[in-house]
Amino acid sequence: MPAPRLRSASALILVSALAAVGLGSAAAPAAAATIPVGSGSYSDVRPAGASGPTTNTGAPVTPKVTPAAKDKPVPTNDWWSSLAFQRYGDNPHSTPMYGHPLTYQATRGGLEVGYPTSSAVGGDGRQYEFAHKADLTLGLTGLNSPDTRADDWSDWTVTPYWSDGTRTLRTTIGHGMPYVYAKGSGGNAQITTAAAPTVFADQGNVLGVTVAGHHYALFAPTGSDWNVSGSTVTAGLGSKDYFSLAVLPSTDALATFKKYAFSFVTGSKATWSSEAGTVKATYALTTEAKEGAERGTLQALYRHQWLHTTDPLTPYTYVSPRGTMKVREAASFSTSQRASGVLPALPKSSGVETARLRGYLNEVANASDPFSGATDTYWTGKALGRLAQLVPVADQIGETANRDKLLGLMKGRLQDWFTAGGVSEFSYDKDWKTLTGYPASYGSDTELNDHHFHYSYYVYAAAIVAQYDPAWAADSAWGGMVKTLVRDAANPSRTDAAFPFLRGFDVYAGHSWASGHQGFAAGNNQESSSESTNLSAGLVLWGAATGDTSLRDLGTFLLTTEAEAISQYWFDADQQVFPSSYGHDTVGMVWGSGAAYATWWTANPEEIHGINVLPVTAGSMHLGRKKDAIKRNIAEMERENGGPAVEWRDLLWEFESIADPGAAKTKWDAGHAGYTPEQGESKAHTYHWINTLDTLGAPDASVAGDIPTSAVFTKGTVRTYAAHNHGSTARTVTFSDGGKLIVPARSTATGTGTGGGDPDPDPDPPTGNTFQLRTGGVLTTAIGTTAGSDTIASAGGGNHDGAPHTPQTYEVKNVTGALKAAAATSFRLQLDAGSAVGLGQQARISYDLTGDGTFERTETYHYFATDPVAGWEEYTQARGLKSATGTLGALKDGTVRLEVWNAIGNGTAKILTGTDRSSLVIPFQ
Q1: Mind giving me the DSSP string for 776-788?
Q2: What is the pLDDT of residues 354-364, one digit of tens each?
Q3: Are 50 and 32 in contact (CB under 8 A)?
Q4: Rounded to whole angstroms, how far apart are CA atoms 629 and 637?
Q5: 272 to 204, 222, 333, 653, 900: CA distances (angstroms)
Q6: What are the residues facing 267 on neighbouring strands?
Q7: How far apart are CA 906 and CA 895, in angstroms?
Q8: Residue 220, φ and ψ in degrees, nearest 5
Q9: 176-189 per-position pLDDT tens digit
Q10: Do residues 568 and 577 touch, judged by C-beta distance below 8 A?
Q11: Bridge partners, residue 705, by sequence
């Protein structure tokens, strides 16, 4: 959300091109009832003069759903929400909906379907779009429905419904679905194309057509026959009521897609787990066989998904605004990611001067108005967040009086909001099944915007209170109201009759959406992805503090998933998503159709870059996954700004410190005396953050602890392990690199990974177990920044799976180290097959423990199938071991060898050298 309350005209040039927006007038309240929840309460009627959901002209609006769905909580803030939330009075159908790879728009005559494969850059070069353009409309002959309603939905699919009194049509559409499944009555199946189609296959009930350069297959029941007349294609359904279509990656895919044409998707569901530092998720479709017994299907995975799956994928791909989508031939797939950790605050370090920090803390704690005049949900939340960041910081230096004063301020303001009947309260809307805070802001009432942004601060602040006062957080006290906010913004239940499942978070897209109604030509949007992850981090801390492992693990899943989506779709970390014609390295807003270097309220570069950073908390460490992307981000901001940040400089210093702590500290040292903190920040927090990271090093996302409240920091070759234990007994936290840390009860500890904890760490230097690749066949512990590459020879069309074939070999000799308990080899290798199809690179790591020329241990990993799109892709040990021989022992003047070759295919590939993006970590210390 924005810092200023007004939007400048220059900033709205782009936004107005996407859609017109407006706020409505207030609806009259009815007699109110108070709903008690523990010590708190909410109202079931809005305050006098307040408004709920409206059209853009201010008319009250209720969910546009069928009678079959009237009692189901409507998932606003989704990719298809305009089906159910009629924001514009003259459009009773929908605005464009971006399912990817297909796009859709409901009309009187049925469902427009498009497959945009080329981008347009507009808005003075600030916006790229793969805009919806109908290739065809799926319907029934004569269908003329006055509206389109949502009839059913699941995690990432929806079923729109049309009826004109004679004909009825239902279609099922979804993310990653190349098919549209239709059920109709009262008319023949009808496909109306944007131009006369070219028929490339005619098999009676199966017709292959090309429209606007895109290939589609049309499927009618067996015994039917498609008839083409100009741009109208029809088929009688006989006694059946179903038909379908699919967009094909190529015409030769027809046979594969025909196989699943009558395996109709009836639902979608994501499940997840978080254990031992790993987040696993499974995305499954349920299907119904309309003909025969086939129940499988085809689905397209987004980049953030296929980067983290080892499930087999087909060679088929699709174009999307999120980069290449890859096709899976199955009804489900699974992903596995290293968890993103969260701490209540960065740990104590020797780089922070107690007296100086105390002075900064006093400025906040003794302010005449610590809430800066905030009255609405958003700005109150920002103020709560600012105070919450300082509570653990004050505790670290023994400032118990300031700590408790800050806690008291937070409790008082939370309790005001958590009690109905005052000047601020939460009100439940039984029609929309949502909880809205009043006074509202930024359309959180009339458009149901941003609930996950606003409420993130309340949940996070409550989690910090719970850490110090568990009794306050009990369900019978104030915890029940915290959980009610969670149910509104991020409900993990699909059976809760009062709130929808995960209102804002799109489990398949991997991120949240901000608009409640999705009423834009460009689809839905999200600007401040960092405020979305603030909610996830708050869930981790709340769940850990209250013993609610289900909410804790939900938070870890949401945070880890969205962290990868942000990295790819907001920051283009791998430089594989933004179109080549787009001239920006980052975006402020992601839309269904693309993205924009913009915000809702300003064109100022500092805020465009900073909006996806704030608030900076110890839940922001996930941003350190791709440090090169942060450096590009800061460099672009300074180019666009004509120099270093002036506005929001504290946020951008903190952001830079996640990648380059030394550079950020230099800027802090030079500029800390002459700036005004961003409204959710304080000098106390910024000073503590920058100096702590300068001392401990940047967050190291390559290592995770076996509890969600843990992190690792690396400075040079030195790793510092940190964890917070919310429990009542001491515990040992084990990290993915084998490091261990003993953490006392209800405490944060840091250490060197050897088992002990140290509140004021002075880490011992490690022996060096991380090697970078250098052109010339060298593995080295030296840190490089100049990228190079080596060519991996072709497999020559042969199959060399498991057997090195003219490999690129990298080696290091005279290595000495002790084997780490429970540790394993890990690597990350950047590969690029260019446009070559069907290549797969394979790695083998060999250990000669004594340097005598005999390799006692070899590990061969499953090959990595590169895509035929130019750009680096990452191959890691997560592909899994194919085979291993021998056993590891102590290394004494030993040799470590890495071999990389093309296991399959008929073309060369490249491997990145010279930087930490290609590295090998051996399980020794």
Answers
A1: TTEEESS--EEEE
A2: 999 999 999 99
A3: no
A4: 12
A5: 43, 39, 12, 35, 33
A6: 286
A7: 32
A8: -110, 165
A9: 999 999 999 999 99
A10: yes
A11: 735
Instruction: Enter the DSSP assignment of 54.
Output: B
Cα gap 761→659, rounded to integer Å: 21
Q: What is the pTM of this model?
A: 0.81
Active site residues: 450, 527, 531
C-beta pairs of 223-228 under 8 Å, 24+ apart in sequence: 224/189, 226/202, 228/197, 228/199
**Is the CB of residue 830 less than 8 Å from the CB of residue 912?**
yes
Report the alpha-carbon distance of residue 201 to residue 155 in Å, rounded: 35
Nearest Cα to Cα of residue 98 among 45, 32, 175:
175
Which DSSP state fits 736?
A: T
476-490 pLDDT per residue, tens: 999 999 999 999 999
In sequence order, what DSSP letters do the residues of 262-320 get, joined into one string? Answer: TEEEEEEEEEEEEETTEEEEEEEEEEEESSSS----EEEEPHHHHTT--S---S-EE--
Name the percent of the chain lying above pLDDT 70: 95
CA distance 463 to 478: 11
- Decide: 367 and 416 in contact? Cβ < 8 Å: no
pLDDT tens column, 91-100: 999 999 999 9
Q: Which amino acid, residue 224?
A: S
For the record, the structure tokens of 355 come out as 């007296």
What is the end-to-end Cα distance of the chain in Å, rounded?
46
Residues 45-85: tens digit of each pLDDT: 999 999 999 999 999 999 999 999 999 999 999 999 999 99
Contact present, 740 and 734 (Cβ < 8 Å): yes
Per-residue pLDDT of 492-518, as tens digits, reads 999 999 999 999 999 999 999 999 999
Weakest-pLDDT range from 523-532, 586-595, 746-755 = 746-755
Cα–Cα distance list, 637 to 179, 565, 573, 612 (Å): 41, 21, 16, 13
The whole-angstrom distance between residue 780's C-alpha and the CA centroid of its chain comes to: 34
So what's the pLDDT on residue 32?
62
| Averaged pLDDT, 298-326 | 98
Interior CA angle at 313 toward 312 and 319, to 5°? 160
Query: Per-residue pLDDT for 311 more than 80?
Result: yes
Paired tokens of 186: 């009262």
Q: Which residues, 6+ apart, have CB-to-CB distance to 750 below 8 Å?
A: 347, 348, 696, 720, 721, 722, 741, 757, 758, 759, 761
Which residues 6+ apart lie within 8 Å of 214 measured at CB? 115, 117, 135, 247
